[in-house]
TrEMBL record, chains A, B:
Residues 16-178 form the HD domain. Transmembrane segments: none annotated. Keywords: Hydrolase, Metal-binding. The lineage of its organism: Bacteria, Bacillati, Cyanobacteriota, Cyanophyceae, Leptolyngbyales. This is HD domain-containing protein. The keyword Hydrolase applies. It comes from Trichocoleus desertorum GB2-A4.
Length: 205, 205
């Protein structure tokens, strides 16, 4: 019989399969369907490996990859909140804290505490690893939006100034990638995938 | 303008989104649909982190996670070959080599060589990291099969002796997890999720 410790770990591993059912607003690059949070997490973890050379000096890559692999787990209970949904984001913190209690509570206490602290570290965006991880989490959706002709931007009427505001963590967590972000946004505006902010709206932001 | 090097890396990152479209025989734990290879890769990478304490001494966890995150990329061109499909597995190696040429060839040459060698290392199952990674790649589907009442085993008429044969890398790459595998297989046979080998079939295997 496996130990109680291993049984708890396996229960957690089985439970997190549910992240594959959580849909995001981003579409796959072929626009066939919405992306789910598990495959999104895979994508950005592999991005961290491919783009490791642009991480600020001193970033521990394994630590950043851990943050990326588990940063969305709380969505199993709390759902994915669209980043431009202001009212949804007001209740997000409370829903996610309850989710963290339940999900990380499935693990042996020492490991539950450890993984929960990694999730809190990602959310706090203070350590270099968390800043780098958040930068990649922000970058991936604009790559997919570019491939789909701005599908989720158009659906929700998102403007270039909103995207650039949302991308600010790239400037802090992976500054060498910021010119890429500006280039993608400019290309998407030029291609008609993304609305330029109107004069009046620009003044108010 | 981003450098040519970064442009190649971004082209690779965009291309690998296609792994989200590659379907495996395994179902999600709620049996709602087939699992895809991207979310499968996420699941086993996070398993490596949760189950790291069962890795043989000296295993470098970041190295194992890298192997797990990219081990299925060649399926973008070569497709997923069901592990019990003997004829499909005969042509698998050739299809996957051509896929590796194309996909890793999208990257800057130094990085393409590095990531391709990681894929080759996983396939060769010689290093401790590759053995541990392969063990987790084998373990995850039996967890999902147990949750779905043996859905993909029943669909393809897979027997317990075939599963135990398929699970042998667990014995080598993560021996502390082998009793768990035996327990799951025994539980699944007892529950009627998995056929016991018949007397005649047992003799021939």
């Amino acid at each position: 019989m496996p130990s109680n410790r291993l049984a708890q770990q396996i229960a957690f591993i089985v439970e997190i399969d549910k992240l594959k059912q959580i849909l995001r607003q981003t579409l796959l690059t072929n626009a066939s369907r919405q992306e789910n949070s598990a495959e999104h997490s895979w994508h950005i973890a592999l991005m961290a490996i491919v783009l490791a050379e642009y991480a600020p000096a001193g970033v521990n890559l394994l630590h950043a990859v851990k943050l990326l692999l588990l940063h969305d787990l709380v969505e199993i209970d709390a759902g994915d909140t669209f980043c431009y949904d202001l009212s949804g984001n007001q209740s997000k913190a409370e829903r996610e804290l309850a989710a963290a209690d339940r999900l990380f509570g499935l693990l042996p206490p020492d490991q539950g505490t450890e993984l929960r602290s990694l999730w809190e570290e990602f959310e706090a965006q203070v350590t270099p690893e968390a800043k780098f991880a958040v930068a990649l989490d922000r970058l991936q959706p604009i790559l997919n939006n570019q491939q789909t002709g701005g599908a989720s931007w158009k659906k929700h009427g998102i403007r270039a100034d909103q995207v650039l505001w949302r991308m600010q963590p790239v400037q802090e967590g992976a500054p060498e990638l910021w010119p890429l972000v500006e280039q993608i946004v400019a290309d998407c505006v030029a291609a008609g995938y993304l609305q330029q902010a109107s004069q009046a709206e620009s003044v108010s932001t």
